[in-house]
Structure formats: structure tokens, C-alpha cells
Specification:
Strand content: 15-25%
Largest sheet: 7 strands, mixed
Shape: globular
CATH architecture of the largest domain: 3-Layer(aba) Sandwich
Catalytic activity: GTP + succinate + CoA = succinyl-CoA + GDP + phosphate; succinate + ATP + CoA = succinyl-CoA + ADP + phosphate
Number of domains: 2
Structural class: alpha/beta
CATH superfamily of the largest domain: Succinyl-CoA synthetase domains
Family: Belongs to the succinate/malate CoA ligase alpha subunit family.
CATH topology of the largest domain: Rossmann fold
Pfam family, one: Ligase_CoA
Organism: Leeuwenhoekiella blandensis (strain CECT 7118 / CCUG 51940 / KCTC 22103 / MED217)
Pathway: Carbohydrate metabolism; tricarboxylic acid cycle; succinate from succinyl-CoA (ligase route): step 1/1
Order of helices and strands: EHEEEHEHEHEEEEHEHEHEHEH
Strand order of the largest sheet: 3-4-2-1-5-6-7
């Protein structure tokens, strides 16, 4: 089993012919991901990377039956790309773009909330189900198939956690990079819930960072759910000063319960196995699953 993407997913790339879209689509195809085409307005009818190019997402869906889209569209147009995907009936929309204006994302998030779709990101590394589909910018070779799910706000820590879990001989079911912006689609809680409900996922690694309440909401859900699957948590940003944005636009301690120490306390109170260093993630997972 897997969540969100698998070998049967039909993926289109928005911003297909741009430099980022071209590079990462090429990597995805090389990985074995079922990329069925791409969208670049004004270039419909051409082929690129031996795949068809369409003017609109609607055209791409009609011709290919695409159900997943990955967005490499510049920030000024990316929110429109998200809404266009939702209108066209795409079920899983993965927005990689960083720097989308917050006002645009508020509009897009509101627009898609009544549509039958799920948004991952923006400003995220994407989603990977090892050996089946890599829909994002992560280094595919790090991920091997297994029984541990990963949910992360941080791109690089997603790869770090996966590498450690794989080195413990356990492997990954699906890794979901939810993104670090103030306004994102799928929350930590929603992503954790998908993995806890996946029969093949035996443990979940949850990587958070300072700012916001996403990890606290997830931890409370984990406790309330009564799951017996272990959840291993790590919070980045221990040494960050209050009031200063660190790395991600959403990583800023602006209120109570948003510092790394506060979050770790909430996670522990709700039964999450918290590690103090990312270097401990793999060992802790192995210990809890042995």
C-alpha cells in the first residue's frame, strides 16, 4: 500500500518546459514515475521529453486521464496553477514552488476547499512512494521500499530521515513533504492520519519545526486516535530566537506553544516518541519496531 501516489498514478507537470520543470520531470521519468505529459500555455501540441505538451490542465486531463499534477510554475502564477488543476479534476496537486505570495495562497486555499482534491505544499519537496512514483524534487536513490511513513515540513530532513530508516533495514512506505509556508494544503495531522490509516505503514516519522500549531494538532489527534503504531517526532529550530523567521516562511515563533521546547513537550504529552537530534531518528524507529 501507499498513500497519495503509486505506480498507477498518472502525473502531469505544470511548467513542464521551463528549466525547473524540465530538469525534475526528467528525473521523475528516469525514476520510473508515470509522467503522462505536461502543461505550458502556448506550447500545446509540441512534445517535450518525449511526452505531449498541453495548453491547459483541462486538455491534459481529457487526453491522458491524469489524476496527479506537480507544479513548477513561477510564484506569481503558481496559485492560479493550483486553482486550474482543481477545476480540471486533478485529485492530488503537489506545489513545489517557493515564494508564492501569502495573499495568493489564501485565495487558492479557499477556492479549492470545496473541490475533490488534495493539495500538498507549496514550498515542499513533494511525495515519493519508493519504487513506484517520485513526484517531487527529492533524491530518489535515498528511498527504499519498506514499512515506515514520513511526514515532514523540511525537505532536507525528509531525505535525512529516510536515509537513516533505510540504513536500519526498514525502508519507507510513502514520504510526504508538506512544505514550510504559512498557508499550506495538507497539514501535518492530515498527512499523519493518511499514514496511520495505511495498513502497510507500521510506524510514522513526523518532522516539524518552530512556528504554528501543526505538530500540536497532529499530536493531539494521534493520542485521540488510540493508534498502537509508534510515531517518532523531531522538531527543528531549537536554537532559533523568538520573532525571527528561520529558513521557511512559516518557521517563526510568534506565540505560546510555538517554540521547539513547547512543541516537544506537547508531543511527549500525547505519546509521541521525541528525539532531540535528527541523527537519532533511524535508531529510535528501529528500537520501537524491534
Amino acid at each position: 500500500m501507499s498513500v497519495l501516489v503509486n505506480k498507477d498514478s498518472k502525473i502531469i507537470v505544470q511548467g513542464f518546459t521551463g528549466s525547473e520543470g524540465t530538469f525534475h520531470a526528467g528525473q521523475m521519468i528516469e525514476y520510473g514515475t508515470n509522467v503522462v505529459g505536461g502543461v505550458t500555455p502556448g506550447k500545446g501540441g509540441q512534445t517535450h521529453l518525449e511526452k505531449p505538451v498541453f495548453n491547459t490542465v483541462e486538455d491534459a486531463v481529457k487526453e491522458t486521464g491524469a489524476d496527479v499534477s506537480i507544479i513548477f510554475v513561477p510564484p506569481a502564477f503558481a496559485a492560479d496553477a493550483i486553482m486550474e488543476s482543481a477545476d480540471a479534476g486533478i485529485k492530488v496537486i503537489i506545489a513545489i514552488t517557493e515564494g508564492i505570495p501569502v495573499a495568493d495562497m489564501i485565495k487558492a486555499a479557499d477556492y479549492i476547499k470545496d473541490k475533490d482534491c488534495r493539495l500538498i505544499g507549496p514550498n515542499c519537496p513533494g511525495v515519493i512512494t519508493p519504487g513506484e512514483a517520485k513526484v517531487g524534487i527529492m533524491p530518489g536513490f535515498v528511498f527504499k521500499k519498506g514499512k515506515v511513513g514520513i511526514v515532514s515540513k523540511s525537505g532536507t530532513l525528509t531525505y535525512e530521515a529516510a536515509d537513516q530508516v533505510v540504513k536500519q533495514g526498514l525502508g519507507i512506505t510513502t514520504a510526504i513533504g508538506i512544505g514550510g509556508d504559512p498557508i499550506i494544503g495538507t497539514t501535518t495531522k492530515e498527512a499523519v492520519e493518511l499514514l496511520i490509516n495505511d495498513p502497510e505503514t507500521e510506524a510514522v516519522v513526523m518532522i516539524g519545526e518552530i512556528g504554528g500549531q501543526l505538530e500540536a494538532d497532529a499530536a493531539k489527534w494521534i493520542k485521540a486516535s488510540g493508534t498502537t503504531k509508534p510515531v517518532i517526532g523531531f522538531i527543528a529550530g531549537e536554537t532559533a530566537p523568538a520573532g525571527r523567521t528561520m529558513g521557511h516562511a512559516g518557521a517563526i515563533v510568534s506565540g505560546e506553544g510555538e517554540s521547539a521546547a513547547d512543541k516537544k513537550k506537547i508531543l511527549k504529552e500525547n505519546g509521541v516518541h521525541v528525539v532531540d537530534s535528527p541523527a537519532e531518528i533511524g535508531k529510535k524507529v528501529a528500537e520501537l519496531l524491534s
